[in-house]
Design goal:
The complex is a heterodimer of chains A (186) and B (280). By secondary structure, chain A is of the alpha/beta class. Chain A has one domain: Alpha-Beta Barrel (fumarase). Helix content of chain A is 25%, strand content 26%. Chain A is built from six helices and seven strands; from the N terminus they run E-H-E-H-E-H-E-H-E-H-E-E-H. Chain A is globular, with a radius of gyration of 16 Å. Chain B has two domains: 100 residues, Dihydrodipicolinate Reductase, domain 2, CATH 3.30.360; 126 residues, 2-Layer Sandwich (60s Ribosomal Protein L30, Chain: A). Helix content of chain B is 38%, strand content 25%. Chain B is built from eight helices and ten strands. In chain B, the strands form three sheets. In chain B, strands 4-2-5-10 form a four-stranded mixed β-sheet. In chain B, strands 6-9-7-8 form a four-stranded mixed β-sheet. A two-stranded parallel sheet of chain B has the order 1-3. The chains are: A alpha/beta (186), B alpha/beta (280). The interface between A and B is large, with 50 and 53 residues.
Chain lengths: 186, 280
């Protein structure tokens, strides 16, 4: 299995191919619906973001509260398509990787190819196991949002699968096409 | 007649919330094991291994299987001869809040859907369905329902002339549209008949049935088997990344309906098919 250390360069990102299993180590932003909406509102106003996005990776996750002595509670991916409305703008700002679950829309995929960004799938519903790979969590902005705040985590050997690469390959369409039976009558 | 004090239920309801979030029921674990025997895609097999390891870890460490610990949906079966002392709804709300706090579960309820969407920070209000049943029972089933699979669920008011082919097409279209978003391998609940609000409720009730327990009526059991084969023929596979197992089970529930209607509802449950049951 391939091991990658964050932050990822454009070259790292463009060398990945859909279907590859990767272990990520390093620093990752976390945010979901509200954090994305607020980041785009800041951009609309020409205001500064809580942290620059160039070279960053973002994980779509809203963890459960951490038990005493733990960095984070259960922490699996949420459905990425809800962030599709905002993702192209973040990619244009230099975002290098997104981690979530489920397929993405065309505008996101186009931006990924154009600016050099990869989409990793983490395993949905494996929150207990994924949390064990997260060592630290700090809040960057909007703490009042709780699990929806913009935060930074550090991970060691965080398991992901390259779902959509920069070369036009998408495991969410190619995977099912390869395994489907003939049910064309419906 | 039998009297039940509602205040006495609070602690047990809290326990149900924690149990559902952390312990995958044996029938669902068995379903994941069976999926491993059927699956052939290497990525799909890798996903299933991780899910089984995750479930074991969650149970051992008493941590949530998934970070989305869901909306607490309760099905209350209340006997005609059961007398409730106190406020049952209030007891369920209190138990939910207590359980979600005690178990370090995620508070996932926005108090209002359209404008501020502020979190209630209590995971209440829950959704409570009550059925009146014979005898002096009080049986409460909790199905904690995650947002990912709920968001991909759908219903349609078909025409009677659409028939079985129309129903099958609607179900398969809904499954294809859901793709990996509903976290396959799923349990697919199908509600047929009833009316506009009843079909989705039938679909949700269908999710409560134990996996591998077929519909008692043979023609509906055969329909379940046929739908399972068709759904697994989509190739969507574990997590939507391609494979043989998209659903672990298909459960159908039906009810009589208007002569002009053919309501059909599809309610997905992700592989974290949580539920907990208590009799009081």
């Amino acid at each position: 299995m391939k091991r990658l250390t964050l932050p990822l360069s454009e070259n790292d990102v463009r060398s990945l191919h859909a279907g590859e299993q990767v272990l990520l180590s390093g620093s990752i932003l976390t945010g979901r619906d509200v954090a994305h909406k607020r980041m785009c509102e800041l951009m609309d106003r020409g205001a500064e973001l809580p942290c620059p996005l160039a070279g960053e990776a973002i994980y779509y996750v809203g963890p459960t509260p951490a038990m005493p002595g733990k960095a984070v509670g259960s922490a699996g991916p949420t459905t990425s398509v809800r962030m599709d409305k905002y993702a192209p703008r973040l990619i244009e700002c230099g975002l290098r990787a997104m981690i979530g679950k489920g397929n993405r829309g065309e505008a996101v995929i186009e931006a990924m190819q154009r600016f050099g960004c990869v989409y990793f799938a983490a395993i949905g519903g494996a929150g207990a196991l994924l949390a064990q790979r997260i060592n630290n969590l700090e809040v960057l902005a909007w703490d009042e949002l709780g699990c929806e705040a913009l935060r930074r985590i550090s991970v060691t050997d965080f398991p992901v699968i390259v779902a959509i690469d920069t070369h036009g390959h998408n495991l969410y369409t190619e995977g099912p096409a390869a395994w489907q039976n003939n049910i064309s009558q419906y | 007649m039998r009297t039940v004090k509602c205040a006495d239920l609070v602690d047990a309801i809290a326990d149900m919330c924690v149990e559902a979030a952390t312990c995958l029921p044996p029938d669902v674990l068995a379903g994941l094991q069976r999926a491993k025997e059927t699956e052939q895609s290497p990525v799909g097999l890798a996903v299933l291994d991780v899910l089984l390891e995750n479930a074991a870890l969650a149970k051992r460490e008493k941590v949530p299987i998934c970070q989305d610990t869901g909306v607490a949906v309760y099905f209350v079966e209340l006997g005609h001869e059961t007398v409730l002392e106190g406020n049952l709804y209030e007891a369920i709300c209190q138990g939910t809040e207590l359980g979600y706090k005690r178990g370090y579960l995620r508070m996932s309820i926005a108090g209002e859907p359209l404008f501020e969407r502020l979190n209630t920070h209590t995971n209440t209000p829950p959704v409570v369905h009550v059925s009146l049943v014979p005898g002096d029972a009080l049986r409460i089933t909790l199905a904690s329902k995650g947002g990912g699979s709920e968001n991909m669920s759908a219903m349609a008011m078909l025409k009677p002339s659409d028939g079985k082919a129309g129903v099958v097409k609607f179900i398969l279209d809904t499954v294809r549209k859901a793709g990996g978003n509903a976290c396959p391998p799923m349990v697919v609940g199908i509600g047929l008949g009833g009316n506009f609000e009843m079909a989705p409720l039938l679909a949700k009730r269908a999710l409560l049935r134990e996996l591998s327990q077929p519909h008692p009526e043979e023609r509906y059991a055969a329909f379940e088997r046929e739908m399972l084969e068709l759904i697994n023929g989509t190739g969507i596979g574990p997590q939507g990344l391609g494979g043989k197992v998209t659903a672990m089970a298909v459960h159908v529930e039906y009810a009589p309906c208007h002569i002009a209607s053919l309501p059909v509802a599809v309610n997905f449950n992700c592989h974290v098919a949580r539920h907990a049951v208590r009799e009081f």
